[in-house]
Amino acid sequence: MTSLLAVAAMTASTLVPLPPLPPLPPLLPSPEPAPTAGAPVAVAVAGPDGRLRRGCHDYALTYAVTVPDDDWSLDLSTRDRDGRGVSAQSLLGPTDPESGTLPFRLCGRATSPGRFTVTGVLVSYDGAQETRATVVATFRLRRRAR
Fold first, then answer.
1. Is 69:142 a contact under the CB 8 Å cutoff?
2. Strand order of the sheet with strand 129-142?
3. Would you list the DSSP string of 41-103?
4. What are the beta bridge partners of residue 138?
5. CB neighbours of residue 45 within 10 Å
């Protein structure tokens, strides 16, 4: 065993250092940065404050989206003060307009008055790239007048 160690030590001491190798070219070209969209993606939603009426009635949400292209979707969900879902709606571009009013029906006997929360997700599709924007809005429906 000592003879192997001696041979290894003599071999290591007689090695001539080699000059460093030049860097290798990359195998694949570096990716170009993705182009930035010209217009930002944004969404706004509002619901009316008011009174919860007796019986079943339509109420309205207003919405507006800002997207760079006609290929988009908007999903809205409305919850009551207890967190129960009372309305869900979806819009698709170019079929639906980029702004407007969405009716939803509430029945006074089955709905608790209070603060309602609308959450939404806007997705803009640009080829293989998706851009998302979220929105949270609240409105209040008080007890009906007696």
1. no
2. 50-51, 129-142, 114-126, 72-79, 85-92
3. -EEEEE---EEPPSSEEEEEEEEEEE-SSS-EEEEEEEE-TTS-EEEEEEEETTTS-SEEEEE
4. 117
5. 21
Domains of the chain: residue spans and CATH: 42-142 (2.60.40.2550)
**CA 51 from centroid of its chain's CA atoms:** 32
pLDDT tens figures, 51-78 = 988 899 999 999 999 999 899 999 999 9
**Taking a C-beta distance cutoff of 8 angstroms, is the pair 63, 72 a contact?**
no
Cα(102)–Cα(121) distance, integer angstroms = 16
**HSE value, Cβ hemisphere, 13 Å, CA-based, for 63:** 29
Q: What are phi and psi of 35, to 5 degrees?
A: -65, 145
Q: What are phi and psi of 41, to 5 degrees?
A: -100, 125
pTM, whole model, 2 decimals? 0.70
Tens digits of residue pLDDT in 111-134: 889 999 999 999 999 888 899 999
